[in-house]
Amino acid sequence: DQQVKQNSPSLSVQEGRISILNCDYTNSMFDYFLWYKKYPAEGPTFLISISSIKDKNEDGRFTVFLNKSAKHLSLHIVPSQPGDSAVYFCAASADFGNEKLTFGTGTRLTIIP
Amino acid sequence: GAVVSQHPSRVICKSGTSVKIECRSLDFQATTMFWYRQFPKQSLMLMATSNEGSKATYEQGVEKDKFLINHASLTLSTLTVTSAHPEDSSFYICSVPPWTSGVGYNEQFFGPGTRLTVL
Q1: Which of A26, A63, A107, B113 is deepest in the core (most CB within 10 A)?
Q2: By the 8 A CB rule, do B91 and B47 touch?
Q3: Per-residue pLDDT tens for A23-62?
């Protein structure tokens, strides 16, 4: 039972354009969401997060949007840079501060120079 | 951010042997660490919570007798895959949760992972 889903296994975007990565979840108990970035043969690194009391959180080129009614979140990267090429995982937890994370399957983002 | 190391980064072993993977928190003491497993093209799945000074807590479906976890000190947790079989081949990653690092919420710091291949 995949509670966190990333339906696009891969995405290619031109350098300088906006990258939009999507994530859907089914568990209505999830109230905190995170995006991680992962390079090959490395562990994931934290990128940005959002709690369920917000619908948007912005950090530099990265913005995460949350639509609770649709159980959907998205990560926007603008402008996209070649160094953004990586696998992006969304993750969710059912209790703010709870350490247990449920991960999506990941989206491989490729930025085309 | 916190630095978490894992050793070895890659291991190949024969079926039936046991393999030990170490996870070290280099910057701070960690009373709790987590072990995840990632199969190809799948998400990271939490296997167990490693607790310093007490038994590990395993997620449903994870065999505790097969995946032995020892949190030997405040900076070291080990995962031993006993009697490994080809289906245990996977990418094993440890992480340290935020409250033990004093930085942020839910921002777990992950190790670089260990690629296990069982022949």
Answers
A1: B113
A2: no
A3: 999 999 998 899 999 988 788 998 999 989 999 999 999 9
